Task: structure prediction
Amino acid sequence: MRYSQTFIPTVKEVPADAEIPSHQLMIRAGLMRKLASGTYIYLPAGQRILRKVMEIVRQEMDRAGALECTVPVVQPAELWQRTGRDVDYGETLGKFKDRHGRMNVLSPTAEEGFTYLASQEIQSYKQLPVNLYQINTKYRDEFRPRFGVLRSREFMMKDAYSFHASEACLHRTYMAMYEAYKRVFARCGLTYVIVEAETGEMGGTGSHQFTIPCASGEDVIVYTAAEDRAWNIEKAPVDPVAKPPAAEAGPPEEVHTPNVGSIEAVCEFLKTRPEQMIKTLVYQSGEEVFAALVRGDHEVNPEKLNQFFVGRHIELADEATIRKVTGAAVGFAGPVGLAGHVDRILIDHAAAAMAVGVTGANKTDYHLKNVVPGRDFPLEGEAVQVCDIRNAAEGDTYGGKKLLFKRGIEVGQVFKLGTKYSTKLEARFLDEEGNRKPCLMGCYGIGINRIIASAIELNNDEWGILWPMSIAPWQVMITPAAPEAEIVAAAEEIYQQLLNQGVEVLLDDRDLRAGVKFKDADLLGIPIRITLGKKSFAEGKAEVKLRSEKDKEMIDLAATAEHVSKMVRQMLDQLNAV
Result:
């Protein structure tokens, strides 16, 4: 490809709305342009990268025995109503009514579509297992799109769905996809961590998440100091906190705290610390109202709460419900006297272990001091349970091992879905005894755009991107650094030789200063650069340099194409050796 004949509109300035390196560099390097909030146009160089990532994913899915299909992005809302995910996704689910008055959704994932297909086509255990996948556009109506393609409204995803007659069969496919994912990310040049994960809106019995450790990541990876276990923050378990010696505390004492409802405001008003507070949150799950108690410096983990309400949607109670069960405005709920007004109370281990604390008084503008768990509110009973319902935090342990934290970008996740979707959408089969059973299902997703962003987050410097060879828009960049005809002719000859050897090469044939060409080459991040300048050409040499290295080689002009072609093959072989 000749630079003059493609479209790579590079930008010097950092875009004002781009917060992280991948977003900044995808704009600056001319890979994409913003169309609207959370939606982007991929330009030719960006499209080449996207296509390469998709091809690696496709090769590994095919190698793992998955079969490619395509399911419509627009799906009947009725399918999502049958699974209950129209409620689970809430306003994040894009919806519209067509001209016939039928409600449709813009799918963020395709369990409903593929399970509906299975319900129509699978009749017998003899047809199982089957693993179907697609690479397709998805849509989430994100409230606040940010970080470029890491949290966008429209995105490209590979999603696969497998159907099975037994747990053993499901596990075999699950592990085959698990290994395929390892190959995908290794071939894309990504350093990844596999963590145990919650299933979230997907549902199911088990999941692993593939995460790229990165300071810009929105996910939190929790791992033991021994690095023998790792989880995402939603899944990470914690040891119960040791209960301190009993404190001498008088009876609960009401304190007037006018217009002070938040933990921070109460701490400032009463001169106390968050870890000395007991935070009470009121939730709803259908008709059931329950309270969750955590220490003031801890956060309730919604995914851990979900384990107590399997298959049911939970959400924070509305203001009217909170007033009804506590008798107070929002911000003044507390556990003292709450039993009997809610259907159950879940108390985090750390809150239960407190010697004494401060909490809401279930009375507007009042809090209680000298509250002792177990004395002033129950820690056991038919509707009371002490359990792990919070996010892990600094200082926590699991199995006696210290927990450590780092940020990361989720690029893929595998799930054992069980029968959640097959039961609701009637994807059933006849077993060997003639019994009709719901298919066991697995689900496997990869964020195509996220792979691109993650590669940039891991591989960039002050001048631009450093692409892994396997997903670079071009493998080699040739830069004639002087306008003399013989130098231009030599660059053209090397260009043609590389093309003949199957190398993807970009020849910068623009009539621009060498400095401008070099800056664009660094920004675009093509792995190997060949430079022909006056001095090197006079010596019969070409300068060959890796984008990721400072050092350069001087190679005879006649041997340059063969030398560089060999470099390309070696770099690809290293990535593909998985």
Remarks:
- The radius of gyration is 29 Å.
- The domain at 474-576 is CATH 3.40.50.800 (Rossmann fold).
- DSSP finds 16 helices and 32 strands in the chain.
- The chain has three domains: 15-209+409-456, 253-387, 474-576.
